[in-house]
Design goal:
The protein is an alpha+beta fold. Helices cover 18% and strands 32% of the residues. It is globular. Bound molecules: copper (II) ion.
Length: 166
């Protein structure tokens, strides 16, 4: 599946130490064949960010500055983990969140599971005390959730819906 292939690519990019900068092709200006296709938007271009939204993951809850997002808006999420355990912050429709949870569960259960945790195109993974950025260009805002997919966290309430600003 496209998303998994893309995840592996992103993991490779992360391993190369250049994660955090958005590759130029992610903005979708270089032909659709190379960019991954998501029904809920695409990795955003830093030059097109319209707003920064601060997110804190703490006490097993997300505190998110703004949930109202315009159609096609590009948001820079600055996510800080103030807890003493790892969290992730994933943007996507509920079915993709469920897939991500399953994937993380499998990774966690495997040997050195924690070391295999990585960012996806639509997710950042945060160690305690870390701050990471995720830039996303939204589509179909009303269908989208933000969630932490570390096993057990979504179920404990680390999730929520975005709202379409009209
Ligand atoms: Cu979490």
């Amino acid at each position: 599946m496209t998303i998994n292939k893309f995840s592996m690519f992103v993991a490779a990019v992360a391993a190369a130490g250049i994660v955090g900068t958005v590759p130029s092709w992610a903005g979708g200006t270089h032909g659709a064949s190379k960019a991954p296709v998501f029904s809920f938007g695409e990795p955003g271009d830093a030059h097109h960010v319209s707003r920064t939204v601060e997110v804190t993951a703490g006490d097993m809850t997300f505190h998110i500055e703004s949930l109202r997002i315009g159609e096609s808006e590009t948001i820079r999420f600055v996510v800080t983990n103030t807890d003493e355990i790892d969290h992730d912050f994933t943007v996507g429709p509920p079915e993709l969140q469920a897939e991500h949870r399953e994937e993380m569960m499998k990774m966690m259960e495997s040997e050195n599971g924690m070391a295999k945790m990585h960012d996806d195109a639509n997710a950042v993974y945060l160690k305690p005390g870390e701050t990471r950025e995720l830039i996303w260009k939204f589509q179909n805002v009303a269908d989208l959730e933000y969630a932490c997919n570390v096993p057990g966290h979504y179920e404990s309430g680390m999730k929520g819906r975005f709202q379409a600003a009209s």
